[in-house]
Amino acid sequence: MKCKNKGCGREIDADSVYCKWCGTRQVREQRSKSTAHTPTARKLPSGSWACRVRVNGQDVSITRETKEEAIAEAMAIKHGLKAPEKNRTSMTLAEAYESYIKSRDGILSPSTVAGYMRLRRNTFQRLMPMKLGNITSEQIQREISAMAKGGKAPKYIANAEGLLSSVLKQFNPGASYDLHLPPKRKPDLQKLEDGDIAGVLAAFRGDPVELPVLMALWMGMRMSEILGAEFGDIDGGRLHIRRAVVIDADNNSVVKDSAKTYAGDRWVDIPLYIMALIRADGRDSGRIVTFTGAAIYKRFVRGMERAGLPRCRFHDLRHANAAIMVRLGVDSRYAQERNGWASDRMYKQVYSYTMDDQMAAISRQMDDYFDNKMSTEIQEAKKQQRV
Q1: Which of 47, 50, 96, 239 has the fewest Cβ atoms surrounding its Cβ within 10 A?
Q2: How many angstroms separate the first and last alpha carbons of the chain?
């Protein structure tokens, strides 16, 4: 046969697809049914990516966090390498929670998993038997409003809604919900004032829990960090905070070989007085503090009551440490590094507070300024009247 290119027109083999002289295609190539066709992925309002393929006469929708994951999953299902998953929207919310928590077990802290389990048991209970595809914004909002009316703190509600949103995003990513949460409230901290600090030092001097109390108040350590600290973490006069003891979902103590956050892995100087307490019993290996968290807390509460000091949580000692740094004018960058906060906001808005005597001193300074201005203005007015 002749080449179909009129400019060529040469004789070529009858079954040629391309002309061997000019390269012009002679016939349209037929794509085999087995030829791979890459599905098209589209981005959903939630930020996830979705692909749709047809398998055995049925449309199968695949949704994943990234475009590449969605296409790869769709290709695997289309070519029989993987069976299509059960429609996720037919899962109940309870099943979705359990799958979500299980998939993160071993990655998240045991205490975080325990917190998720408590939220699973105590929040959105009316929605748990429902299928994901049937849950509406109105139903979720009713549950949120019921929690607010029941006296739950805004932070608790925000945590519950945050977990719910993460679960729904993973197992029903195409859906969107319009929700409103109660406004945040300023933390109701039990403030330890400047005079209380001296009272705490006196109340626990010589007490069995003096060491953990001072590690929290003086060194700014979390309870989990105090329980996780070992003699091997001491180098010279410094302590490497890199381990924590937390409570898991079964209420058991678990050693976590990492700090609470990336910023929580840090070195802190050990004051000489505290170092003397650490070395007092002659041990040089194992845990520095051998009490359990519950035992420390009970002794702490009793000690505060005996001394007539404000009743507060053990963690409030860490807040007091932040307040002392504010009082001393410590730059937030150094405070953040010393106490292992992940952000400047945690130090300024969550942990630190102002002490009343300092606020009174500032008020006096402001009063003196305006009293002086008022006196000057009155004197000037009298002078004008004489003129």
Answers
A1: 47
A2: 121
CA distance 265 to 225: 10
pTM: 0.59
For residue 85, the model assigns a pLDDT of: 67
pLDDT under 50: residue ranges of the chain: 29-31, 33-34
Selection from 243, 221, 198 nearest residue 296 by Cα: 221
Rg value, the chain, Cα: 33
Using an 8 Å Cβ cutoff, are 91 and 128 in contact?
Answer: no
* Pairing of the two strands 58-64 and 234-235: unpaired
Beta bridge mates, 268: 239
For 145, phi then psi, to 5°, come to: -65, -40
Enter the tokens of residue 73. Answer: 């999953």
- DSSP assignment letter at 183: P
- Coil vs helix vs strand at 226: helix
Return the number of other C-beta atoms located less than 10 Å from residue 183's C-beta: 6
Would you call 362 helix, strand, or coil by DSSP?
helix
Q: Are strands 238-241 and 244-247 parallel, antiparallel or unpaired?
A: unpaired
Q: Which of 317, 310, 319, 314 is nearest to 187 (CA)?
A: 319
Check residue 270 and give its pLDDT: 93
- What is d(CA 116, CA 100) in angstroms, rounded to the nearest whole number? 10
User: For residue 263, how far is the Cα from the chain centroid?
Assistant: 13
User: How many helices and strands in the chain, by DSSP H and E?
Assistant: 14, 8
Q: What is the pLDDT of residues 21-43, one digit of tens each?
A: 777 877 654 445 445 578 888 88
**CB-CB contact of 380 with 299 (8 Å):** no
Predicted pLDDT of residue 194: 87
Report the C-alpha gap between 290 and 271 in whole angstroms: 20
Q: Give bridge partners of residue 255 from the DSSP assignment.
A: 245
Token pair for 185: 């409230």
**Residue 354 CA, distance from chain mean position:** 26
Q: State residue 29's pLDDT score.
A: 47
To which H or E segment does residue 52 belong? Answer: strand 49-55
Rounded alpha-carbon distances, angstroms, from residue 353 to 281, 301, 323, 358: 36, 22, 5, 11
Q: Give yes or no for a contact between 25 and 18, defined as CB atoms under 8 angstroms apart.
A: yes
